[in-house]
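INSTRUCTION: Work out how this chain folds

Token vocabulary: learned, describes local backbone geometry

RECORD BEGINS BELOW THIS LINE
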Amino acid sequence: PHDRAECDRLAMESVMAAERAAGRVPLDVSAKKVGYDIESRDPLTGEPRFIEVKGRHEDGEVIIVTRNEILTALNAGHRFWLALVRVSGGFAGQPQYLQ
């Protein structure tokens, strides 16, 4: 069995690192249950990105998106991103973003 909490933690770390590398300022808001996990801002424009992180083990085939996440995506429009992260052997890959 896979450790879901560890998979989620590694996926979050991967997305946070990718956002920082892209020059944005990410903030973990996952505990607030607002329909996304990371709010990442462009430091020059202040434009936010609302990122829902989905980490899956290498053999995972299904990603579940909740009703709250879908409603948030519809309301946020182009500012909402889904970040998919494959986790294998205790390591997270680079996120794949879907807008």
In short: The chain has a mean pLDDT of 95.
